[in-house]
Amino acid sequence: MRFSILFATSSKQMTIVMPLAPNVLYFLKFVIQINYMQKITAAITAVGGFVPKDVLTNADFEKMVDTNDEWIKTRTGIEERHILKGEGLATSDLVVPAVQDLCKRRGIDPNEIDCMIVATITPDMFFPNTANVACDKLGIKNAWGFDVLAACSGFLYSLTTGAALVESGRYKKVVVVGADKMSAITDYTDRATCILFGDGAGAVLLEPDTDGYGVLDSILKSDGSGGKYLNMKGGGSLNPPSAETIANKMHYMFQDGQPVFKFAVTGMADVSYELIQRNNLTADDIAFLVPHQANKRIIDATARRMGLSDEKVLMNIQRYGNTTAATIPLCIWDYQDRMKKGDNIVLAAFGGGFTWGATWVKWFI
Protein backbone atom coordinates (compact mmCIF):
# COMPACT_ATOMS: atom_id res chain seq x y z
CA MET A 1 0.00 0.00 0.00
CA ARG A 2 1.34 3.43 -0.93
CA PHE A 3 0.23 7.00 -0.20
CA SER A 4 1.24 10.52 -1.19
CA ILE A 5 2.01 13.52 1.00
CA LEU A 6 2.24 17.13 -0.19
CA PHE A 7 4.77 19.27 1.67
CA ALA A 8 4.60 23.04 1.12
CA THR A 9 7.33 25.52 1.97
CA SER A 10 7.66 29.25 1.31
CA SER A 11 9.60 28.57 -1.87
CA LYS A 12 8.33 25.26 -3.31
CA GLN A 13 6.07 22.27 -2.97
CA MET A 14 7.14 18.64 -2.86
CA THR A 15 4.97 15.58 -3.40
CA ILE A 16 6.50 12.47 -1.87
CA VAL A 17 5.17 8.98 -2.54
CA MET A 18 6.19 6.42 0.05
CA PRO A 19 5.03 3.07 1.40
CA LEU A 20 2.82 3.12 4.45
CA ALA A 21 5.39 2.63 7.18
CA PRO A 22 4.39 0.71 10.27
CA ASN A 23 7.00 2.67 12.21
CA VAL A 24 5.21 5.92 13.02
CA LEU A 25 8.30 7.34 14.72
CA TYR A 26 10.23 7.04 11.47
CA PHE A 27 7.50 8.95 9.67
CA LEU A 28 7.46 11.71 12.27
CA LYS A 29 11.24 12.09 12.02
CA PHE A 30 10.88 12.41 8.25
CA VAL A 31 8.29 15.18 8.62
CA ILE A 32 10.57 17.02 11.06
CA GLN A 33 13.48 16.80 8.62
CA ILE A 34 11.33 18.28 5.84
CA ASN A 35 10.32 21.15 8.10
CA TYR A 36 13.95 21.88 8.89
CA MET A 37 14.58 22.25 5.17
CA GLN A 38 12.62 25.51 5.21
CA LYS A 39 15.01 28.39 4.60
CA ILE A 40 15.43 30.71 7.56
CA THR A 41 15.96 34.37 6.76
CA ALA A 42 16.64 37.27 9.12
CA ALA A 43 13.71 39.69 9.10
CA ILE A 44 13.93 43.23 10.46
CA THR A 45 11.13 43.22 13.04
CA ALA A 46 11.79 46.57 14.75
CA VAL A 47 13.82 49.75 14.26
CA GLY A 48 15.06 52.23 16.87
CA GLY A 49 17.03 55.44 16.69
CA PHE A 50 18.48 58.31 18.66
CA VAL A 51 20.10 61.67 17.95
CA PRO A 52 21.36 64.09 20.63
CA LYS A 53 19.43 67.28 21.36
CA ASP A 54 22.28 69.74 20.63
CA VAL A 55 22.43 70.94 17.02
CA LEU A 56 25.17 72.54 14.92
CA THR A 57 23.73 74.49 12.01
CA ASN A 58 25.47 75.80 8.91
CA ALA A 59 25.11 79.27 10.43
CA ASP A 60 27.13 78.06 13.43
CA PHE A 61 29.94 76.98 11.12
CA GLU A 62 30.02 80.39 9.49
CA LYS A 63 31.27 81.66 12.85
CA MET A 64 33.83 78.86 13.25
CA VAL A 65 35.52 78.46 9.85
CA ASP A 66 35.64 80.16 6.46
CA THR A 67 32.44 78.77 4.94
CA ASN A 68 28.79 79.66 4.41
CA ASP A 69 25.37 78.04 4.37
CA GLU A 70 24.93 78.14 0.59
CA TRP A 71 28.35 76.55 -0.07
CA ILE A 72 27.67 73.70 2.38
CA LYS A 73 24.14 72.95 1.12
CA THR A 74 25.17 73.12 -2.55
CA ARG A 75 28.07 70.69 -2.19
CA THR A 76 26.77 68.33 0.48
CA GLY A 77 23.04 68.82 1.06
CA ILE A 78 23.63 69.24 4.81
CA GLU A 79 21.81 71.92 6.80
CA GLU A 80 22.41 70.78 10.39
CA ARG A 81 23.87 67.95 12.45
CA HIS A 82 23.34 66.72 16.03
CA ILE A 83 26.23 66.67 18.52
CA LEU A 84 26.55 64.68 21.75
CA LYS A 85 27.68 67.12 24.42
CA GLY A 86 28.35 66.48 28.09
CA GLU A 87 31.05 65.21 30.39
CA GLY A 88 31.67 61.46 30.24
CA LEU A 89 29.32 60.76 27.31
CA ALA A 90 30.44 58.38 24.57
CA THR A 91 29.15 56.27 21.69
CA SER A 92 27.52 53.77 24.07
CA ASP A 93 25.32 56.64 25.27
CA LEU A 94 23.98 56.86 21.72
CA VAL A 95 23.52 53.09 21.46
CA VAL A 96 21.52 52.72 24.69
CA PRO A 97 18.54 54.99 23.83
CA ALA A 98 18.42 53.62 20.27
CA VAL A 99 18.12 50.04 21.58
CA GLN A 100 15.60 51.13 24.23
CA ASP A 101 13.51 52.70 21.46
CA LEU A 102 13.73 49.46 19.46
CA CYS A 103 12.69 47.30 22.42
CA LYS A 104 9.75 49.57 23.19
CA ARG A 105 8.51 49.43 19.61
CA ARG A 106 8.83 45.62 19.52
CA GLY A 107 7.43 45.17 23.02
CA ILE A 108 10.33 43.09 24.32
CA ASP A 109 12.56 43.20 27.36
CA PRO A 110 16.25 43.91 26.56
CA ASN A 111 17.14 40.61 28.23
CA GLU A 112 15.43 38.77 25.38
CA ILE A 113 18.27 39.88 23.10
CA ASP A 114 20.70 37.06 22.22
CA CYS A 115 23.47 39.10 20.61
CA MET A 116 24.32 42.74 19.96
CA ILE A 117 26.61 43.91 17.16
CA VAL A 118 27.72 47.55 17.17
CA ALA A 119 29.19 49.08 14.02
CA THR A 120 31.34 52.05 15.00
CA ILE A 121 34.67 53.78 14.39
CA THR A 122 34.34 55.78 17.60
CA PRO A 123 34.19 53.11 20.32
CA ASP A 124 34.09 54.24 23.93
CA MET A 125 37.55 52.66 24.20
CA PHE A 126 39.52 49.92 22.45
CA PHE A 127 38.31 47.42 25.02
CA PRO A 128 35.95 46.44 26.43
CA ASN A 129 34.00 46.74 23.22
CA THR A 130 31.13 49.21 22.93
CA ALA A 131 28.56 46.43 22.56
CA ASN A 132 29.53 45.05 25.96
CA VAL A 133 29.50 48.51 27.55
CA ALA A 134 26.05 49.22 26.09
CA CYS A 135 24.70 45.84 27.24
CA ASP A 136 25.86 46.63 30.77
CA LYS A 137 24.17 50.05 30.70
CA LEU A 138 20.98 48.41 29.42
CA GLY A 139 21.08 45.76 32.13
CA ILE A 140 21.36 42.97 29.55
CA LYS A 141 22.78 39.80 31.12
CA ASN A 142 21.94 37.11 28.57
CA ALA A 143 23.61 38.44 25.41
CA TRP A 144 27.09 38.42 23.94
CA GLY A 145 28.29 41.19 21.69
CA PHE A 146 31.08 42.66 19.64
CA ASP A 147 32.02 45.70 17.56
CA VAL A 148 32.58 45.90 13.80
CA LEU A 149 34.90 48.55 12.39
CA ALA A 150 34.26 49.24 8.71
CA ALA A 151 33.63 53.01 8.76
CA CYS A 152 30.54 54.10 6.84
CA SER A 153 29.95 50.54 5.56
CA GLY A 154 29.99 49.19 9.10
CA PHE A 155 26.23 48.83 9.39
CA LEU A 156 25.98 46.73 6.22
CA TYR A 157 28.91 44.54 7.32
CA SER A 158 27.22 44.09 10.70
CA LEU A 159 23.76 43.48 9.21
CA THR A 160 25.11 40.66 7.03
CA THR A 161 26.93 39.18 10.03
CA GLY A 162 23.85 39.41 12.23
CA ALA A 163 21.69 37.86 9.52
CA ALA A 164 24.07 34.90 9.29
CA LEU A 165 23.73 34.33 13.05
CA VAL A 166 19.94 34.25 12.75
CA GLU A 167 20.04 32.05 9.64
CA SER A 168 22.16 29.53 11.55
CA GLY A 169 19.13 28.79 13.69
CA ARG A 170 21.06 29.33 16.93
CA TYR A 171 19.96 32.91 17.65
CA LYS A 172 16.43 34.30 17.75
CA LYS A 173 16.94 37.99 18.48
CA VAL A 174 20.04 39.77 17.19
CA VAL A 175 20.33 43.55 17.48
CA VAL A 176 22.50 45.37 14.94
CA VAL A 177 23.43 48.96 15.78
CA GLY A 178 25.20 51.63 13.76
CA ALA A 179 26.50 54.35 16.08
CA ASP A 180 29.18 57.02 15.97
CA LYS A 181 30.16 60.05 18.00
CA MET A 182 31.96 61.68 15.11
CA SER A 183 32.34 64.94 17.03
CA ALA A 184 34.98 63.13 19.10
CA ILE A 185 37.35 62.73 16.11
CA THR A 186 36.45 65.82 14.06
CA ASP A 187 38.85 68.75 13.76
CA TYR A 188 36.62 71.80 14.00
CA THR A 189 39.31 74.00 12.48
CA ASP A 190 39.34 71.95 9.24
CA ARG A 191 36.59 73.45 7.11
CA ALA A 192 36.79 70.61 4.58
CA THR A 193 35.68 67.94 7.05
CA CYS A 194 34.09 69.55 10.11
CA ILE A 195 30.93 70.55 8.24
CA LEU A 196 30.20 66.96 7.22
CA PHE A 197 29.78 64.95 10.40
CA GLY A 198 27.29 64.48 13.21
CA ASP A 199 26.49 62.07 16.03
CA GLY A 200 23.72 59.49 16.24
CA ALA A 201 22.69 55.83 16.45
CA GLY A 202 20.23 53.56 14.68
CA ALA A 203 19.36 49.96 15.53
CA VAL A 204 17.44 47.07 13.97
CA LEU A 205 16.21 43.82 15.49
CA LEU A 206 16.71 40.67 13.42
CA GLU A 207 14.47 37.65 14.02
CA PRO A 208 14.02 34.38 12.08
CA ASP A 209 11.45 34.19 9.30
CA THR A 210 10.48 31.39 6.90
CA ASP A 211 8.20 33.35 4.56
CA GLY A 212 10.89 35.05 2.49
CA TYR A 213 11.22 38.38 4.30
CA GLY A 214 14.35 40.06 5.63
CA VAL A 215 17.96 40.22 4.49
CA LEU A 216 17.96 38.32 1.18
CA ASP A 217 21.31 39.18 -0.40
CA SER A 218 24.42 41.30 0.15
CA ILE A 219 27.48 42.23 -1.87
CA LEU A 220 30.25 43.58 0.35
CA LYS A 221 33.63 44.76 -0.89
CA SER A 222 36.85 46.36 0.32
CA ASP A 223 40.08 47.78 -1.08
CA GLY A 224 42.82 48.54 1.44
CA SER A 225 44.75 50.68 -1.03
CA GLY A 226 42.19 53.44 -0.40
CA GLY A 227 43.18 53.72 3.24
CA LYS A 228 45.58 56.56 2.59
CA TYR A 229 42.73 58.81 1.48
CA LEU A 230 40.43 58.38 4.49
CA ASN A 231 41.77 57.44 7.89
CA MET A 232 42.68 58.36 11.44
CA LYS A 233 46.41 57.83 11.83
CA GLY A 234 46.84 58.15 15.59
CA GLY A 235 45.79 56.03 18.53
CA GLY A 236 46.45 52.51 17.24
CA SER A 237 49.50 50.28 17.52
CA LEU A 238 51.11 51.98 14.50
CA ASN A 239 51.03 55.43 16.07
CA PRO A 240 50.28 55.09 19.80
CA PRO A 241 49.16 58.24 21.60
CA SER A 242 52.01 60.62 22.31
CA ALA A 243 52.72 64.34 22.55
CA GLU A 244 53.81 64.16 18.90
CA THR A 245 50.61 62.47 17.62
CA ILE A 246 48.50 65.01 19.49
CA ALA A 247 50.52 67.98 18.21
CA ASN A 248 50.19 66.68 14.64
CA LYS A 249 46.41 66.23 15.01
CA MET A 250 46.71 62.54 14.22
CA HIS A 251 43.73 61.67 16.43
CA TYR A 252 41.36 63.48 14.12
CA MET A 253 39.84 62.00 11.01
CA PHE A 254 41.71 62.76 7.77
CA GLN A 255 40.02 62.84 4.37
CA ASP A 256 41.39 63.60 0.93
CA GLY A 257 38.09 64.65 -0.56
CA GLN A 258 38.54 64.32 -4.31
CA PRO A 259 39.70 60.69 -4.59
CA VAL A 260 37.20 59.64 -1.92
CA PHE A 261 34.35 61.33 -3.77
CA LYS A 262 35.40 59.87 -7.10
CA PHE A 263 35.66 56.31 -5.80
CA ALA A 264 32.45 56.60 -3.76
CA VAL A 265 30.39 57.71 -6.76
CA THR A 266 31.41 54.69 -8.84
CA GLY A 267 31.76 52.15 -6.02
CA MET A 268 28.39 52.64 -4.35
CA ALA A 269 26.54 53.01 -7.64
CA ASP A 270 28.13 49.99 -9.28
CA VAL A 271 27.64 47.60 -6.36
CA SER A 272 23.99 48.61 -6.01
CA TYR A 273 23.41 47.97 -9.71
CA GLU A 274 25.26 44.63 -9.45
CA LEU A 275 23.02 43.58 -6.58
CA ILE A 276 19.74 44.19 -8.38
CA GLN A 277 21.05 42.66 -11.61
CA ARG A 278 22.07 39.38 -10.01
CA ASN A 279 18.69 39.11 -8.31
CA ASN A 280 16.77 39.87 -11.53
CA LEU A 281 15.27 43.03 -10.07
CA THR A 282 14.43 46.17 -12.00
CA ALA A 283 13.92 49.75 -10.91
CA ASP A 284 10.17 49.05 -10.89
CA ASP A 285 10.69 46.27 -8.33
CA ILE A 286 12.53 48.53 -5.88
CA ALA A 287 10.38 50.45 -3.41
CA PHE A 288 13.20 52.43 -1.82
CA LEU A 289 16.94 53.01 -1.90
CA VAL A 290 18.39 53.76 1.54
CA PRO A 291 21.88 55.09 0.81
CA HIS A 292 24.68 56.09 3.14
CA GLN A 293 24.14 59.78 3.88
CA ALA A 294 27.54 61.27 3.03
CA ASN A 295 26.92 63.56 0.10
CA LYS A 296 23.81 64.27 -1.97
CA ARG A 297 25.76 64.10 -5.22
CA ILE A 298 26.95 60.57 -4.42
CA ILE A 299 23.38 59.56 -3.55
CA ASP A 300 22.04 61.03 -6.80
CA ALA A 301 24.67 59.16 -8.84
CA THR A 302 23.70 55.85 -7.21
CA ALA A 303 20.01 56.43 -7.88
CA ARG A 304 20.70 57.25 -11.55
CA ARG A 305 22.79 54.08 -11.98
CA MET A 306 19.88 52.04 -10.64
CA GLY A 307 17.32 53.93 -12.71
CA LEU A 308 15.38 55.10 -9.66
CA SER A 309 13.18 58.18 -9.49
CA ASP A 310 13.73 60.75 -6.75
CA GLU A 311 10.72 59.67 -4.71
CA LYS A 312 12.29 56.24 -4.22
CA VAL A 313 15.49 57.65 -2.72
CA LEU A 314 15.36 58.22 1.04
CA MET A 315 17.48 61.05 2.44
CA ASN A 316 17.86 62.75 5.80
CA ILE A 317 21.38 64.11 5.28
CA GLN A 318 20.02 67.64 5.59
CA ARG A 319 19.04 66.96 9.22
CA TYR A 320 21.87 64.79 10.54
CA GLY A 321 24.86 65.11 8.24
CA ASN A 322 27.15 62.10 7.98
CA THR A 323 26.81 59.97 11.11
CA THR A 324 29.07 57.30 9.57
CA ALA A 325 27.84 53.82 10.63
CA ALA A 326 24.53 55.28 11.84
CA THR A 327 23.33 56.86 8.59
CA ILE A 328 21.48 53.88 7.09
CA PRO A 329 19.65 52.70 10.24
CA LEU A 330 18.77 56.31 11.12
CA CYS A 331 17.33 56.76 7.64
CA ILE A 332 15.28 53.56 8.02
CA TRP A 333 14.13 54.83 11.43
CA ASP A 334 13.00 58.14 9.95
CA TYR A 335 11.11 56.60 7.04
CA GLN A 336 9.84 53.29 8.47
CA ASP A 337 6.22 54.49 8.37
CA ARG A 338 6.46 54.78 4.57
CA MET A 339 7.66 51.21 4.16
CA LYS A 340 5.11 48.45 3.59
CA LYS A 341 5.38 44.73 4.17
CA GLY A 342 6.87 43.09 1.09
CA ASP A 343 8.68 46.20 -0.17
CA ASN A 344 12.04 45.56 -1.81
CA ILE A 345 14.58 47.89 -0.25
CA VAL A 346 18.21 48.36 -1.25
CA LEU A 347 20.73 49.61 1.32
CA ALA A 348 24.00 50.99 -0.05
CA ALA A 349 27.15 52.37 1.56
CA PHE A 350 30.70 53.48 0.95
CA GLY A 351 33.33 54.19 3.59
CA GLY A 352 36.95 54.48 4.58
CA GLY A 353 39.18 51.54 4.01
CA PHE A 354 37.91 51.62 1.29
CA THR A 355 34.80 49.60 2.16
CA TRP A 356 31.53 49.50 0.26
CA GLY A 357 28.52 47.32 -0.37
CA ALA A 358 24.80 46.90 -1.00
CA THR A 359 22.12 44.77 0.66
CA TRP A 360 18.68 43.67 -0.49
CA VAL A 361 16.00 43.57 2.21
CA LYS A 362 12.37 42.52 1.80
CA TRP A 363 10.51 44.57 4.39
CA PHE A 364 8.64 42.63 7.08
CA ILE A 365 7.04 45.17 9.43
What does this structure look like?
This protein has 365 residues and is an alpha+beta fold. The chain has 11 helices and 15 strands. It has helices at residues 24-36, 58-62, 69-76, 92-106, 130-138, 154-167, 243-247, 257-278, 296-306, 317-320, 327-335, and strands at residues 2-8, 13-19, 41-50, 54-57, 80-83, 115-119, 144-148, 174-181, 199-209, 214-222, 230-231, 254-255, 286-291, 344-351, 355-362. The strands form 5 sheets. A 5-stranded mixed beta sheet has the order 3-9-8-6-7, sandwiched between helices. A 4-stranded mixed beta sheet has the order 10-15-14-13, with helices on both faces. A two-stranded antiparallel sheet has the order 1-2. β1 and β2 (13-19) form a beta hairpin.
Walk me through the topology.
Layout: E1 2-8, E2 13-19, H1 24-36, E3 41-50, E4 54-57, H2 58-62, H3 69-76, E5 80-83, H4 92-106, E6 115-119, H5 130-138, E7 144-148, H6 154-167, E8 174-181, E9 199-209, E10 214-222, E11 230-231, H7 243-247, E12 254-255, H8 257-278, E13 286-291, H9 296-306, H10 317-320, H11 327-335, E14 344-351, E15 355-362
Parallel strand pairs: 6-7, 6-8, 13-14
Antiparallel strand pairs: 1-2, 3-9, 4-5, 8-9, 10-15, 11-12, 14-15
Helix pairs in contact: 4-5, 8-9
